[in-house]
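Progress report, Aim 2. The chain analyzed during this reporting quarter is listed below.
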Amino acid sequence: MSSPKAIAFPIRDYQHADFPALCALDPLCFPEGIAYPPEEMALGLAQRGAFALVAESSGQVVGFILAYRRGRPWGHIITIDVHPDFRHQGLGTRFMEYAEQRLRESGATRILLEAGVENETAIRFYEKLGYAIRRLLPNYYKDGSDAYLMEKILS
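Predicted structure tokens for the chain:
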């Protein structure tokens, strides 16, 4: 369950005015070649069935999750970003819980996501939430690094 600390950060639906903050936050969370450039962030947000949730602290965006419905049974977590200064406070878990619930309500029975093979912290986080590695995705990122495709079957 989510950490009581994370309750201090209200989570709300993305608004277009948040776009610059999302684009500024992503490179703080991921290295070049993995972070989304603004054009790709815009494409992700424009996907059919896409939604984003945003967390704020003192009026500043400190995290977001971007996801979409992908075909009949599939949901897809595109990215989850929490500012480095706001990690380990339960915010990532809350984002995942909210996104999973929204995807479930839209009819998804499975959720996919990708995690860089070297991002052991993220892999452990997703495994703790019930995701399992399904396969290796060689050269997945622009920098040539590999990712794991991970999946969770919703109950």
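Residues 4-153 form a domain with the Aminopeptidase fold (CATH 3.40.630.30). The mean pLDDT is 93. These observations will guide the mutagenesis work planned for the next reporting period.
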